[in-house]
Amino acid sequence: MKLNIALIQTTTGRRPESNMKNISKMIGDAAKNGANFAFLPETCNFMEPDRKCQFRLATYEESDESLKILRKLALKYQIWLLVGSLVIQANKKFLANRSFIINNEGGIVARYDKIHLFDANLGGSHLYRESDIYRPGNQLVIAETPWGKIGLTICYDLRFPQLYQSLANAGANVLTVPSAFTVPTGIAHWDVLLRARSIETGCFVIAPAQTGTHEGGRQTYGHSLAVNPLGQVIADGGTKTGITIASINPCLTNTVL
User: Fold this and answer.
1) pLDDT recorded at residue 7
2) What backbone phi and psi angles, to 5 degrees, belong to 86?
3) What pLDDT shows up at residue 257?
4) Which of 114, 130, 149, 203 is catalytic?
5) Is 251 among the residues known to form the active site?
6) Distance of alpha carbon 150 from alpha carbon 129, whole angstroms
7) What pLDDT, on the 0 to 100 scale, is given for residue 3?
8) Across the chain, what does the average pLDDT equal?
């Protein structure tokens, strides 16, 4: 069964309300353009550089307003959603970077907490320590969908090929990598790593991404990609915000196309 996908590329800001307003329109546009599955990037509810503000904005999953809005949109437009990730309160001390798959009835069919946290020094003022405020996940997650099994990962997970091989070995035919890749690492590694993961596993790889300069000054690489099992890029969102539509046939995974 062919799957019409929409890669939704955003420049997420600091306030969930305005971000959800933009995303709501884009999901509606994706549905009108024939997509039956829309893919959102990492941390699409907000990107806030101040850690104290992150804790003030984050809520527990059951009360998260962004998640409630996205579930209603999936039902309204009869579209499946990969919510690349939301910043969610995990406990009193830590947040979670959590991905969701929502079906076209608004139900949550899978959730995944990012396993590999981004602790890296890119030089200058570009120091990232996600482990200071995020609690890592510890479970592989595969979602059952009408188009087969989808394996969930997030951003920095991309650098750990054994995770993707484990998902493929467990039956995944599509792998998702919602991201907010930095510009220097994006230029160096984004395309080649996504293509490598697809070739190694024989799976489609779908990677919706953040792009541009965000409130607070962070810059992300963009180039939301869909890659086929031969490692060929079949859709590229470029560097502007917007929607990229593509069609894939997940039945062709793990075989010669």
Assistant:
1) 98
2) -120, 145
3) 40
4) 114
5) no
6) 28
7) 95
8) 94
Is residue 74 within 8 A of residue 35, CB to CB? The reply is: no
Per-residue pLDDT of 45-64, as tens digits, reads: 999 989 899 999 999 999 99
Tell me which amino acid residue 190 is.
W
Kindly state the tokens that stand for 101. Answer: 């798959």
- CB-facing half-sphere around the CA of 23: CA atoms within 13 A: 37
Choose, from 42, 48, 130, 149, the residue flagged as catalytic: 42
Tens digits of residue pLDDT in 124-143:
555 567 888 999 999 999 99
Contact in structure between 149 and 3 (CB atoms under 8 Å): no
Is 114 noted as a catalytic residue in this protein? yes
How many residues are recorded in the chain? 257
Q: Hey, where are the domains in the chain?
A: 3-252
Q: Report percent pLDDT > 70 for the chain.
A: 95
State the catalytic residue, choosing from 48, 130, 149, 155. 155
Residue 256 confidence class, pLDDT cut points 50, 70, 90? very low
SS3 sequence, the chain? CCEEEEEEEECCCCCHHHHHHHHHHHHHHHHHCCCCEEECCCCCCCCCCCHHHHHHHCCCHHHCHHHHHHHHHHHHHCCEEEEEEEEEECCCCCEEEEEEEECCCCCEEEEEECCCCCEEECCCCCEEEHHHCECCCCCCCEEEECCEEEEECCHHHHHCHHHHHHHHHCCCCEEECCECCEHHHHHHHHHHHHHHHHHHHCCEEEECEEEEECCCCCEEECCCEEECCCCCEEEECCCCCEEEEEEECHHHCCCCC
**Superfamily of domain covering 3-252:** Carbon-nitrogen hydrolase (3.60.110.10)
